Amino acid sequence: MTDLARVPFSVLDLAPIVQGGNAAGAFRNTVDLAQHVERWGYRRFWLAEHHNITGVASSATAVIIGQVAAHTQTLRVGSGGIMLPNHAPLIIAEQFGTLESLFPGRIDLGLGRAPGSDGATQQALRRSPRSGLEFPALLDELRALLAPERPGQAVRAIPGAGLDVPIWLLGSSDFSARLAAELGLPFSFAGHFSPEGMAAMRLYRHLFKPSATLERPYAMIGVPVIAADTDEQARRLATTQQQKFLSLIRGNRLPLQPPVDSMDGLWNEWEQQAVQQKLAAAIVGGPETVKQGLQALVNQTEADEVMIVSDFHRHADRLRSYEILASLKHGAGTANQAAA
């Protein structure tokens, strides 16, 4: 059993827009959260590419990564992820080569193959429904552009070539797990919205082939966590993420909604089951409940790192949740202080 204190914690953020808020406020909160978690000892802060989704402001992902990196000092900042089939590999190589040049040794490039939105938005991105099948070839092209320049190379990423930006593969199924294992790359599993695929973590470890990048497998698990000072308070705050997934299931995405005392009357029985299935891996509770849940998750998945995503309507509640998690790991004396 791996001691939870030995497992690095990281953050996945979507620059969430809350009801009554706007993108500018979401970006300020993102930077503020990054500054707090840096002080609390988190390892990395990733932002996810999504498009045409009410409530998510992280569409221009590389731009926000630069903003977060500029306002932090030691935190690794990156993408969780860039949806590579949405882009020409040269553009991504140049963007992340620029970021690595500005913030050397602090940039991660996490890559996914999903569109990050719906069919109509795929068309607006000039992406075909079969673009995901091109992911391995696009990845090879991108890696070649970030590798040291070769004699006679006609197309170069300037900046980007030779900068060795760390690449991660992200996934919610076994496709990316298999590819990451074959290439010897680190793998991050999206357990925060696909809890039924935990077997992908085991598959990755089983199939892993050592590479110049990694001698042994390195797997990270994403998980939704809502921590508060008591179980009761956390359960109430968790209704914000339940409403988020309810709006997703209904095809009517909304900004993050305020918590409610009860979800009764807001969903029907089928919707309740669907939301609970999506959030099956969510850990909700006071400090001890959350600690036990995270320890069980690490034991189950053998994760080398845990990436936490948290949906809160009030920014102060989100800060408090990450503060509690840090105190569980590091024994910080801040566990009983409210986050400002």
Characterize the structure shown.
It is a single chain. With 340 residues, this protein is α/β, with parallel strands linked by helices. It has a single domain (4-226, 282-330), classed as TIM Barrel (Alpha-Beta Barrel). 40% of the residues lie in helices and 14% in strands. It has 12 helices and 9 strands. It has helices at 23-39, 61-70, 89-102, 119-124, 135-146, 174-183, 199-207, 231-237, 239-249, 269-278, 287-301, 315-330, and strands at 9-13, 44-47, 76-83, 107-112, 167-171, 187-189, 219-227, 283-285, 305-309. Helix 6 runs parallel beside helix 7 (199-207) and helix 9 packs across helix 10. The chain starts with 8 loop residues before the first strand and ends in a 10-residue tail after the last helix. Mean pLDDT is 91; it is low at 332-340.
